[in-house]
Every structure is written in C-alpha cells, then in structure tokens.
C-alpha cells in the first residue's frame, strides 16, 4: 500500500467509528485524539480493525506510534507494504 | 400502603416507549384499541424464520449513531424511552436535581445478544480471542441499559438494573416507589427493556422447551387463552415511566397518568419454568390488601399470559380464585397484540392500559378464536374494545421464570381519596 492509501485506510476506519468526524482541518502531525472526538476505546477500535483487515498484531507498547496521522503512516508503511 | 401524605403518594407523570407497533403512547393506544398487531417473521442466525416483535423508532433522535454503535440495543431503546418520558412529563431538570434522580430498569436478561454476537465474530477468525472486542464488558454488565440512560442524560443519582425475569418491569416500578419512600430520590425513571429478538439462544431455548409460538401468519401467532395457542412470540421493546411524589407533581402542575397504590412480589419456590397459580393469587391478594381495595373494585386486569399451555391456565385459575366469576374486573391481554417483550412486558402493558383512565375503554385481547375452557374468564374483553362508564383501578400482572411474581396496582388519580385514609 502507498502512504496515501494507508492514510485513507486510517481515515476510513475513523469515519466508521464516527461518521461525523471532521477531517477538513485535521493536521497530520498533531495527535488524532486532540483533534477528533476519539477516546481510548475508539483507539482500541482502530487497533482491532487493523488486526481484522490485515492480521496486524500491534503490541501495546507500540500504540504511541499511532498517535498522529503521519506517525500512523510511518509505522504502518513497512507492515502493509505487501498489501 | 396507605401512606396518607402527598409526600408518600407516588404518581406516574410521564411515559416513553418503544413497542413493536408504536413509538409513543398515543400511537400505542390506538393500535391496541384497533387490535392491530405488527408482529412479523424475522430471520435470525441458526434459526428458522420466527414470529417476533421488532421496534421501529428514531434511534438517533437523542443519541448519535456512534454512541448507538458503541452501546447496546437495550441502551439505544432505553435512551429513546427515557428522553421521550422526560419530554412527556415536561421535566427539564430545572426543578429537579440530577443527583437526586434514580434510574431503575427491569431486565429479564442482558448480555446474551452481545455475547452471541462476539462468539460469532471470533468464529470468523478461528476462535482467536485476540479478536474479542474490548466493548464486551461495558456492553454486558447488568447495569448497562440503565447506565447508558444516565450517561445520555447526565443523571448522577443511582442507577441499576433489576433482574426479575419477565416480572422485571413491574419490579423496577416497585423499586422506584420504595426508593421514594426511603427518601433516596426526588425523581425516578422506572421501566423495563428487552433486546432479546437479537438472540438466537432465547428463541432456541423456548423452542427446545416447546414454548415458541409458530403460525403461518405472524400477526396471529400470539394467542393467549386460545385453544390452539402454541407458545410465546418474542418481542423487543422498552418503556420508561417518570415517577414523582404527588406534592411535587401537583406543585408544578404535572399531568398525572395515575397513582401507584399497591404492589406485591413473591416467589413460587417450586420450579425453574412452570408457573404456579396459587402463588400468583397470593401475590394479587397482597397487592390488593396494600392498596386497600376489594377485588370487586378493580376495573381492569392486564394479564401476564404468554400463550403457553400451562402458564395461561395457571393465571386464569389464580384470577378466578381471587376475583371469582363476577365482572368487573374486565380482563385483557396485551401480549396478544405485541408479543412478549420480556423485561419490558410489565411496563409496556401497563402503559398500554393507562389511557383507560382518560378514554374509559378496555383494549381487547386478539387472536382468541376458540377459547380454551380452562382459560375461561368472565370479564375477558375479546376482539373489540369495551367502553365503560369509568375506569378507576388497573391491576397489572407480570410473572417470570424461576418462580417470580409481581403485581402493580395503579389507580385513577383523585386528590382526596387517599389523604383521608
């Protein structure tokens, strides 16, 4: 997957959690949870959805890698390169 | 329960409901008077199509879709009913403290739907529990539906569920009355909820017991007292009542649906599933005694009968034992119209009868083509509504598995009747 495709996957998962999520003013280097109405359970929903879609097992200690949109893409890019 | 002062008299001032044929009380009443059942066939995982009652209401009227996805169907129904009840009562919390508001919700069961869905979910991933959802516990704790109501409304007083099988709706009402009398709350939201049409296990268990209704026409499947009855029609639903002290209700000029003047609960102490008329009769007698009423003063009995062979017979025997063959009371059965809404049954059925204090009608029992002689009841209202001069007292039966019985008596509100007692 390209970086842009990975970004779209993340946004798609977030939109599935909250269809009213506003991505227009989303800054890619700022924490997602500071900008969107997401809490820790929503964050776990994102982790679960990545597991279901791509069989990705993300260890808890690596959750901080998913804090911003850009860090998500950076973290997932090598893991999703064959998808 | 001759609590003489207005502080101890508890009245119903708001009703919010979701039934298989209605999403508010006026609509519900109209459908019951017309005898219009909207039971339909549903398809459920692993099951043959079965008759069931499914509610249609505006699920995002009071809560966003994302909260409905995170929560449970019971929570969704509960939030809708609770908001509708508050609006109906005209309560915006300017005159009541949310910290002195209690939410008491009766449940037959909870968590079955969520657990079945989650087991199915992991079955799609080789039963790997890494795929088990983190939402499972908050969805399945027994206080879930009541808790979802408090989160939605910002109510910080007590909330919990009352587990009482199919007597649960009445049990929650009784809990509310008792909390008022203990001085624990100033406002109570009491009701019952069921989401059980989402559970194949509940259908399959009734089927295995030989107690799941079957009929080619789903609207004709729920037929209490009929010789050809063959079991229960399972429904989802919810109903929340607003309870207030009479003095507070009067002070704000509230509309008063009725006054809860009597109640009773007891246990069969006999069998897991078979009901026991003798104990049901004792329960009705205790409620009447507490209300200070003679059997002949009851205008309407809403029967619990679910359409099972023995259950209907036992209740009819109990009613004949307490009330004899005289009329009144007039008798009806709301399940014939909406099916068995389990934890919501007692309160939904009471709600459906409450407008009788205004229109003085008794809504009919439907689907009674050939009455079972063992279910003979002198005052049974069949097919068409019965117009009376005046309805003063409604007695609401609600019984459940593992031998639990509940009776609630609601009277037409009369300002000076109980003050003198």
Number of domains of chain A: 1
Biggest interface: A-B, 11 and 11 residues
The CATH architecture of chain A comes to Orthogonal Bundle
Beta content of chain A comes to under 5%
| Outline of chain B | globular
CATH architecture of the largest domain in chain B: 3-Layer(aba) Sandwich
Order of H and E elements of chain B: EHEEHHEHHHEHEHEEHEHEHEHHHEEEE
Average pLDDT of chain B, to the nearest integer? Answer: 96
Percent of residues in helices of chain B: 25-40%
Kindly state the number of beta strands of chain A. Answer: 0
Structural class of chain B: alpha/beta
Contiguous low-pLDDT stretches of chain B (5 residues minimum) are none
Query: How many separate helices of chain A?
Result: 4
Helix content of chain A: 40-55%
Please specify the SSE layout and strand pairing.
The complex is a heterodimer of chains A (83) and B (421).
Chain A: H1 3-17, H2 32-35, H3 40-54, H4 69-79
Helix pairs in contact in A: 1-3, 1-4
Chain B: E1 10-18, H1 25-34, E2 40-42, E3 50-53, H2 65-70, H3 73-89, E4 101-107, H4 112-123, H5 136-140, H6 144-153, E5 159-163, H7 168-181, E6 187-194, H8 200-208, E7 234-235, E8 237-245, H9 246-251, E9 258-267, H10 277-291, E10 300-302, H11 309-323, E11 330-332, H12 335-338, H13 345-353, H14 356-359, E12 361-362, E13 386-387, E14 393-400, E15 404-411
Helix pairs in contact in B: 3-6, 7-13, 10-11
Structure description:
The complex is a heterodimer of chains A (83) and B (421). Chain A has 83 residues and is an all-alpha fold. Chain A has a single domain (3-79), classed as Non-ribosomal Peptide Synthetase Peptidyl Carrier Protein, Chain A, CATH 1.10.1200. In chain A, 54% of the residues lie in helices and 0% in strands. Chain A contains 4 helices and no strands. In chain A, helix 1 packs across helix 3 (40-54) and helix 1 crosses helix 4 (69-79). The longest helix of chain A is centred in the first third of the chain and has 15 residues, at 3-17. Chain A starts with a helix and ends with a helix. The model of chain A has no long low-confidence stretch (mean pLDDT 95). Helix content of chain B is 32%, strand content 20%. Chain B is α/β, with parallel strands linked by helices and 421 residues long. In chain B, strand 2 (40-42) and strand 3 form a beta hairpin. Chain B starts with 9 loop residues before the first strand and ends in a 10-residue tail after the last strand. Chain B has helices spanning 25-34, 65-70, 73-89, 112-123, 136-140, 144-153, 168-181, 200-208, 246-251, 277-291, 309-323, 335-338, 345-353, 356-359, and strands spanning 10-18, 40-42, 50-53, 101-107, 159-163, 187-194, 234-235, 237-245, 258-267, 300-302, 330-332, 361-362, 386-387, 393-400, 404-411. Chain B has 2 domains: 10-251, Thiolase/Chalcone synthase (Peroxisomal Thiolase, Chain A, domain 1); 263-411, Peroxisomal Thiolase, Chain A, domain 1 (3-Layer(aba) Sandwich), CATH 3.40.47. In chain B, helix 3 (73-89) crosses helix 6, helix 7 (168-181) packs across helix 13 (345-353) and helix 10 (277-291) packs across helix 11. Chain B has a 10-stranded mixed β-sheet, with helices on both faces. The longest helix of chain B has 17 residues, at 73-89. The model of chain B has no long low-confidence stretch (mean pLDDT 96). The interface between A and B is small, with 11 and 11 residues.
């Amino acid at each position: 997957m390209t970086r842009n495709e990975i970004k779209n996957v993340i946004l798609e998962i977030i939109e599935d959690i909250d269809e009213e999520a506003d991505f227009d003013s989303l800054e890619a280097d700022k924490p997602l949870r500071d900008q969107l109405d997401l809490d820790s359970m929503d964050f776990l929903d994102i982790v679960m959805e990545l597991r279901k879609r791509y069989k990705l097992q993300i260890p808890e200690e690596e959750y901080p890698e998913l804090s911003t949109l850009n860090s998500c893409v950076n973290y997932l890019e090598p893991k999703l390169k064959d998808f | 329960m001759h609590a003489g002062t207005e502080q101890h008299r508890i009245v119903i001032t708001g009703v919010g409901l979701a039934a298989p044929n209605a999403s508010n009380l006026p609509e519900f009443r109209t459908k019951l008077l017309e005898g219009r059942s909207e039971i339909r066939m549903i398809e459920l995982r692993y099951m043959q199509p079965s008759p069931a009652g499914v509610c249609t209401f505006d699920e995002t009227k009071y809560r966003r879709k994302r909260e409905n996805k995170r929560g449970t169907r019971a929570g969704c129904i509960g939030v809708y009913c609770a908001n509708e009840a508050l609006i109906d009562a005209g309560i915006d919390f300017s005159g009541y403290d949310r910290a002195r508001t209690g939410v008491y919700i009766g449940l037959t069961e909870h968590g079955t739907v969520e657990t079945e869905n989650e087991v199915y979910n992991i079955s799609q991933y080789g039963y790997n529990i890494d795929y088990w959802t983190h939402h499972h516990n908050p969805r399945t704790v027994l206080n879930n539906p009541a808790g979802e109501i408090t989160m939605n409304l910002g109510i910080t007083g007590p909330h919990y569920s009352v587990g009482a099988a199919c007597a649960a709706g009445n049990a929650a009402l009784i809990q509310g009355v008792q909390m008022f009398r203990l001085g624990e709350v100033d406002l109570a939201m009491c009701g019952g909820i069921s989401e059980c049409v989402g559970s194949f296990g509940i259908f399959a268990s009734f089927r295995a017991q030989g107690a799941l209704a079957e009929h080619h026409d789903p609207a004709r499947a729920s037929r209490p007292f009929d010789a050809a009855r063959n079991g229960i029609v399972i429904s989802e639903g919810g109903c929340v009542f607003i309870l207030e002290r009479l003095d507070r209700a009067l002070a704000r000029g509230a509309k008063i649906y009725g006054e809860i003047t009597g109640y009773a609960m007891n246990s069969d102490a006999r069998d897991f599933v078979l009901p026991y008329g003798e104990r049901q009769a004792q329960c009705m007698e205790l409620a009447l005694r507490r209300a200070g009423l003679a059997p002949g003063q009851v205008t309407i009995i809403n029967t619990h009968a679910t359409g099972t062979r023995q259950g209907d017979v036992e209740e009819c025997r109990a009613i004949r034992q307490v009330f004899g063959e005289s009329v009144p009371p007039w008798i009806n059965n709301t399940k014939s119209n909406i099916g068995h809404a389990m934890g919501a049954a007692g309160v939904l059925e009471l709600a459906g009868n409450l407008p009788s204090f205004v229109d003085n009608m008794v809504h009919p029992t439907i689907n009674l083509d050939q009455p079972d002689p063992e279910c003979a009841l002198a005052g049974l209202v069949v097919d068409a509504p019965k117009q009376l001069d005046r309805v003063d007292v409604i007695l609401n039966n609600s019984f459940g598995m593992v031998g639990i019985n509940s009776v609630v008596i609601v009277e037409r509100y009369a300002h000076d009747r109980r003050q003198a007692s």
